[in-house]
């Protein structure tokens, strides 16, 4: 009885306040309550490489969450996110990835209008990754959602690509960076997880190359990409704990050698370095098929394409097969990229060129026996 009376009394007070609403206008403008998801929340699925400050390195590293009743989303990034911003790719509920400029502090993510109609009850998958083509850093502090949103487990795909490469695979020169690279497009076609460990300008051989302090045969095993060297707030590199790659890769793809050739690494040296690298890769990935791309070469305005290390990839592969490793395949990319597919001043594939590589590799995989799920 007392309780009921006090409720009525409270109601009367609230009514009185609302009647004098002009005086108490601030109450109706109070920010809505939100749900904060901290970066250590177990239902954040991290992919790619993240350091102990919850900061990303390497193309397309990011996270995925699944949210029921999603109505608002703010990404709160930490101070190690590049200033003034880095390009992040965002996909909401299986939408195409779209870019946002992610800055330290609060970033409101626009939700597609279609989401309002879609059944929010099923849960909406949100995917966010560091896509900018020169640096792949963002530091996740927390995510704020509408207060009645509910985080549910994101189930990773059973297909997981691990791609190892250089500027041809890192999203170099793409307006939306890694999200327009062929590795990413192939992953999307399979609704797969993709981990892209590719570094523009880097050789496979552990030498200084185009500003990279190390080659991929060293840096692949590290958390940070070679950008650490120029980073004042994190000027060091640490071993990557491969046990964090969950689920482990199911398919490994390697496309490398352009910068070794450019730096004058001899044929013999290259064969040795690549073969040694494969031994280490095979230890990490004992059962996975490994796909070795041959170079697609440097197209020229005269219609020629200039290839490098011709025949060596086959030689490296044959030597591995001779050791009893039958689960390794050559992807002959000869003719995939022509003058029309590249930026004339850098000879790197354009957006359409990257898509062409993706389609060629998808066709290769289909012949090999791997067919994407229906779109
Ligand atoms: C969320 O992140 C922002 C931006 O870094 C920070 O200012 C805020 O204190 C964080 N909130 C919580 C609850 O951790
Ligand atoms: C990001 O910032 C750049 C440079 O200020 C601007 O041109 C671009 O439109 C911005 N992109 C988005 C998605 O806001
Ligand atoms: C990072 O450290 C290296 C030495 O390991 C040094 O040569 C380089 O100048 C440093 N870079 C920055 C940005 O501090």
Automatic annotation (TrEMBL):
Pfam families: Lipase_GDSL_2 (PF13472). InterPro entries: PCW_deacetylase/CE (IPR052762), SGNH_hydro (IPR013830), SGNH_hydro_sf (IPR036514). Residues 1-25 form the signal peptide. The keyword Endoplasmic reticulum does not apply. Residues 164-355 form the SGNH hydrolase-type esterase domain. Keywords: Signal. It comes from the Eukaryota. PANTHER family: ESTERASE, SGNH HYDROLASE-TYPE (PTHR37834:SF2), GDSL-LIKE LIPASE/ACYLHYDROLASE DOMAIN PROTEIN (AFU_ORTHOLOGUE AFUA_2G00620) (PTHR37834). This is SGNH hydrolase-type esterase domain-containing protein. It comes from Agrocybe pediades.
């Amino acid at each position: 009885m007392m309780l009921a009376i006090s409720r009525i009394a409270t109601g009367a007070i609230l009514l009185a306040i609302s009647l004098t609403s002009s005086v108490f206008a601030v109450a109706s403008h109070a920010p809505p309550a939100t749900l904060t998801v901290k970066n250590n929340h177990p239902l954040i699925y991290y992919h790619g490489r993240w350091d102990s400050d919850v900061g990303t390195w390497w193309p397309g590293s990011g996270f995925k969450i699944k949210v029921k009743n999603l109505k608002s989303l703010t990404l709160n990034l930490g101070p190690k996110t590049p200033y003034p911003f880095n390009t992040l790719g965002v996909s909401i509920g299986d939408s195409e990835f779209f870019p946002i400029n992610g800055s330290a502090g609060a970033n409101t993510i626009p939700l597609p209008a279609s989401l309002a109609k879609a059944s929010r009850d099923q849960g909406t998958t949100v995917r966010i990754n560091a896509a900018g083509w020169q640096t792949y850093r963002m530091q996740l502090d927390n995510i704020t959602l509408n207060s009645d949103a509910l985080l549910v487990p994101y189930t990773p795909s059973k297909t997981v690509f691990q791609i190892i490469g250089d500027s041809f695979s890192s999203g170099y020169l793409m307006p939306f960076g890694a999200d327009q690279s062929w590795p990413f497009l192939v992953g999307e076609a399979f609704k797969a997880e993709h981990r892209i460990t590719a570094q523009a300008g880097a050789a496979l051989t552990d030498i200084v190359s185009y500003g990279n302090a190390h080659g991929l045969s060293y840096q692949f095993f590290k958390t940070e990409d070679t950008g650490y060297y120029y980073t004042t707030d994190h000027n060091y590199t640490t071993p990557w704990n491969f046990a964090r790659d969950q689920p482990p890769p199911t398919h490994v793809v390697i496309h490398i050698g352009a910068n070794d050739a450019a730096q004058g690494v001899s044929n013999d040296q290259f064969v040795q370095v690549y073969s040694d690298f494969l031994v280490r890769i095979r230890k990490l990935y004992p059962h996975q098929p490994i796909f070795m791309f041959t170079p697609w070469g440097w197209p020229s305005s005269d219609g020629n394409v200039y290839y490098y290390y011709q025949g060596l990839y086959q030689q490296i592969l044959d030597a591995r097969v001779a050791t009893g490793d039958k689960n390794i395949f050559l992807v002959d990319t000869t003719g995939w990229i022509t003058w029309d597919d590249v930026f004339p001043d850098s000879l790197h594939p354009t957006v359409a060129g990257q898509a062409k590589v993706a389609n060629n590799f998808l066709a290769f995989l289909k012949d090999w026996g791997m067919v994407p799920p229906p779109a």
